[in-house]
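Schema walkthrough. Field components (list of strings):
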Amino acid sequence: MKKCLHPLEHTVSIKDVAQRAGVSISTVSHVLNDTKYVGSELKMRVLQAADELHYQANTLARGLKSGRTNTFCVLVPSIVSVFFPKVLRGMQMAAAQSGYALTIYETGESLEREREIIQQLRWQRVDGILLSTSCNPETDGAYLEELRNLSINDKRIPVVFFEVAPGEGLDCVTVDNSRASAEAAAYLINSGRREIAYISAPMRFAMGKNRYEGYLKAMQAAGLEAKPSRYWEGDYSPKSGYECMRSLLESSESFDAVLCGNDQMAIGALRALLEAKKRVPEDVAVMGFDNNFPGTLVSPALSTVSVPKQSMGKAAVELLLWRMQSGFEPPARVVALDTKLVIRTSTDANQKSEWDLNDW
Amino acid sequence: MKKCLHPLEHTVSIKDVAQRAGVSISTVSHVLNDTKYVGSELKMRVLQAADELHYQANTLARGLKSGRTNTFCVLVPSIVSVFFPKVLRGMQMAAAQSGYALTIYETGESLEREREIIQQLRWQRVDGILLSTSCNPETDGAYLEELRNLSINDKRIPVVFFEVAPGEGLDCVTVDNSRASAEAAAYLINSGRREIAYISAPMRFAMGKNRYEGYLKAMQAAGLEAKPSRYWEGDYSPKSGYECMRSLLESSESFDAVLCGNDQMAIGALRALLEAKKRVPEDVAVMGFDNNFPGTLVSPALSTVSVPKQSMGKAAVELLLWRMQSGFEPPARVVALDTKLVIRTSTDANQKSEWDLNDW
DNA sequence: ATGAAAGCGCTAACAT
DNA sequence: ATGTTAGCGCTTTCAT
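Field assembly_structure (string):
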């Protein structure tokens, strides 16, 4: 492959600025980085020269020397999911504000791919990593230990987890999934539902487990049985929610509500219910999780748990910056953002629904 | 801010590999890059040493020296729009396959921000730029000329446009927006609609203009008047579609169909129509553009023009790779992907609708 | 207060 | 066939 940069082209470097200003390159560097006092006259000359030549420091050279690249990397399972783009926007904005660029990687929910990328990043002198991990905290302890070392113990590259809380000793921004899920279940119970089915996010991820635990807790607290035959596990996708609901319907297990691990699966489940001529919410109440806009478009509109996605992105970047400043000293910090129930017509026929027409 | 890399840590460099293998660093470099013949015995030793030390070349140093970074940058107006994530996924996959990383930037439809980012990229030695531009080809000719120079004339950084065709002499992947829009209008006309309103994407962008031109062409061809009082311009967002339709309704202009510049605005318009107790499609047919999944969730489901989003991303990366190999010689290449009409219940009550439950 | 110079880790032209 | 070496553009220590 040909070199893109034409050999005749001369990109303006720090040398050119130095020459034009009639000073040494170190003086230029110091002026531009404000890293040492330089007499105001020279300073002026340097700034003017840099300006006239449209000088832009070469990031690679700078990174090579300084060990910093002003770049954060985010790893998300999926970029087409409606959840992550909002988080990414929050990150993007917060990062830009602090002068960092954001590189986005998609892991496709593959831990192998996630590890590969992280492995690469170790040597790319990225300044920080934002990670929505696809690991299973129960079985992938060694991997988490690696990350703990990378981030805090060895003080190499700070890593902040988001969306899922992977466990002890790791910085993380999340919501209290268990509590929020318990609240959602409690709401269903309080509105008279007794046979509450559950369509779960993948249980190999902490999020799936935590949300399920919340459901169990609420059922127990109400003295209700969480029958295993009313439990099906999906994979986050609308399609999987549809299929879980089909299975549930075919099992002829009775149920008067279904709580889902996310909105996408809830929408799939809703579709299956409507096709089976069930009345929602009269026969079956449907509840999602995350509060993504598609839930407002379907009919009946989806009740759900609101998760502050953009704030989560912002908070994750802020935690990263804090960790960098804090000098990598334990303990780890876990930021838990607030959730709130959003009740629409899929659980309460008296609500009236509005389509969410903002930000998509 | 503290350096992230602990000073005591010694990251393994090419030197360590050379030492361990008992060869010179240039031999290591040549083995690893396969850039010169090296005896099989030494080759083995080098590869083994690199493996044992988990050596990963430092991308910054490599980029500094070689002028290449194995990185492409994409600029999109919005990352939360449902359109772009699919394109990004196509790019991501194609780039990864060729060993390139993808950095994503959001311009927020601000040309100023777009220029800033491009300006930065010039000095960051990215290997290629993928650009969904927010410029107005009519008034921003100078900017496009700059990009033409950057990409083809000066052979510095190849730039491939996507989604919008910015004009002559620039590589681009798009669809024939004008033709597709004309087809959509023709379909409405053929199904008996006569007073067809138009809610436009912003006319300062080529896409908005092209789609509107297609509508005009079809109206003319059918001998119908495209009344200015039936034209409203939105900003892509669902909200703006809603507001345009409100305005149209309040204007008491009669109409029996509305063609929209994208699905989002069509969905907003649909909402306004339903709130005004109009029957869709009986009183008014509604047609979108792009075929994004939300159009299948609303009721009635949205007729639209299908745009191959993921393929567009893939094709854009392929065009970039081709441009790099081709040695930057004109002429520019424009790749136009196929579209197709997707008829659902918002224009034809006899259709039956399925929710799109895939990939979100 | 300013400048000279040593590298950061790597590639590639040039020696051997 | 393998090694030596000169930078890429920058930051930063050390000298002046």
